[in-house]
Structure formats: C-alpha cells, structure tokens
Amino acid sequence: MFVKSLGYVGVASPDAKQWLEFGPEILGMQPVEAGADTVFLRMDDADHRLAVHYGDRNRMLYAGWDVGSEEQLHALAERLEERGISYNQGTDEECADRAVLGLLAVQDPMGLRHEFFYGQKLVPNSFHPARPMSRFVTGSQGLGHIVLATPNLKQCDQFFRDVLGFRKSDEIYTFMDLWFYHCNPRHHSLALTPMPGVRGLHHVMVEVADLDDVGAAYDECMSRNIPLSMTLGRHVNDRMVSFYVRTPAGFDIEYGWGAITVDDEVWTVAQYDRPSVWGHRMVAETPPGALEMSD
Ligand SMILES: [Fe+2]
C-alpha cells in the first residue's frame, strides 16, 4: 500500500475566480488568491486542499496522493519501474506550487495525472472556516474522495489496486456502475465509473463533522438559487448523508456528513443495486462538465 490519503486536487476552469466566493460562502472553505490565475482553497491546516487554476475549459489537472515519507516515494518509484510505468520526478518549482517536499507524477491508464508526494506543508491552528461550522473531517482520512469517469474501468482498476495498492470497498450497479476503493479508514478515497469515450472528474466529496454544517450549506444553495445536482440523501455503502452541487469549475461537490469508516480486519466487499437508502434525486440536466473526451 503506497497511498495514505488524498492530499489535494487541482482543476482548471475559465471561472477560477468565482471560487473566491463559492469556496467560502457555500462550502465554508478559506480561499487564498495566488497570483493572477490560481485560487487555493483551505479546509484544515494543510497549505491547501483544492487548487483551481485559470484555464480555457473545465477539467481535472491532477490528484495529489500522500505516500507518507521519502522512503515510500522511492519505494513507489521502484514499483513503477518494475511494472514498466513511466513517471516524472517533480521539479523544485512543482513541489513549491503544491507545498510538498517531494513528488512524482504518473498518468493513469486513461491519461489523468496523479501526483504522489510526501511532506505537505502544515500551518498549525491557521484554518478558520469562512462561515460558522464545526470542521472538515480530514487528518488521516485525507481531504475526502474523488470519483473519476473512465473509458477503461478494468485497466484503471488494475492500476489503482495492483500497482498502487488501493483496496476495493464495494460496488454499486445502478443507473451508473461504481467501484469504490479505500487506502485508509475513509470508506472510499476513490471511486471509478465507466463512461465510454469519456474521462475526468465527476465529483469531489468533502465531509463535515456536524449534520448542521450540511444543512447550513444546503440553506446557502437554496437562498442563492444555486441549483443542486442531487438532492439530500443517504448513500447505501458509506452511509453518508449528503447533497451534490455543481461548482463553477464544472465538477460537482458532494457535501456530506456521517460516513462510516472501514476496518480492513473485518471489512467484506459488498454489492448494491441502488446508490442511496433515500434521497439523492438527480436534479442536474447535464453531467458534470469537468469530463472530457478520452484520447
Ligand atoms: Fe461521492
């Protein structure tokens, strides 16, 4: 197991600056403007958790995975060499941009960039949520989870499990198929959904420590007429109570509370025929816009 947690996610968007309002006012995150074209969003004492870079279209740029140490990063590099998978060592400039001590970057089988790093910059007691709330659930569980659409599910499954050591949590077969993976007690840090000819970021989930924080974010969406993608509901597998809102960068944020955690000693993989115990009615008329045609 090389990956300890999801450390950061980077996206591109023509509307990056809208995150200066959307991030704090809807989600409670702390925005930091970096130069003319990047908005960093903070969720805890990590330097940043989301990076929205100015770009000509909405798309995912990278996902950053914490491997825990320089030794583990070297071990991962050896694993990649054994498997004949090419990677790039992060430059000093890239490490400074990501606020990490070291990283290497790999393309997954669908061509999305994953960065593996150690030494994320932490600033103790520096996070102040932008509106009254408890806190984001992060720490050893990382920033949350990402769900990626892929044109080649089996190849990606092999990459994340056999090469990187992610473990399957469960599978859902419904209007869309979903395979869920964990790398720490969070039920899933990654899920994959097959979409022919399409790849990209479907949604990012962030978890809050109090159900009232979900209600407060929901109220903000209602009072500003920000359309939801999916209504409030509880998922069958991680038991999370959440809703989905389309962000200014095209992908959805799942804003949730109350997920169970996974203990590998006793965990068994299950399959489900529906995504939710109740709720999560699809409202959005279009799929998340951070998806792109695969090569
Ligand atoms: Fe999710």
From TrEMBL:
Name this protein carries in UniProt: VOC family protein
Residues passing through the membrane, by range: none
Cofactors needed by this protein, per the record, are:
Fe(2+)
Q: Which InterPro entries match?
A: Glyas_Bleomycin-R_OHBP_Dase, Glyas_Fos-R_dOase_dom, GlyoxalaseI/FosfomycinResist, VOC_core, Xdiol_ring_cleave_dOase_1/2
Q: Which UniProt keywords apply?
A: Aromatic hydrocarbons catabolism, Dioxygenase, Iron, Metal-binding, Oxidoreductase
Family the entry assigns: Belongs to the extradiol ring-cleavage dioxygenase family.
Q: Which domain of life is it from?
A: Bacteria
* Organism encoding this protein: Haloechinothrix salitolerans
Q: One Pfam family name from the record? A: BphC_D1
Q: Where is the VOC domain?
A: 5-119, 142-258
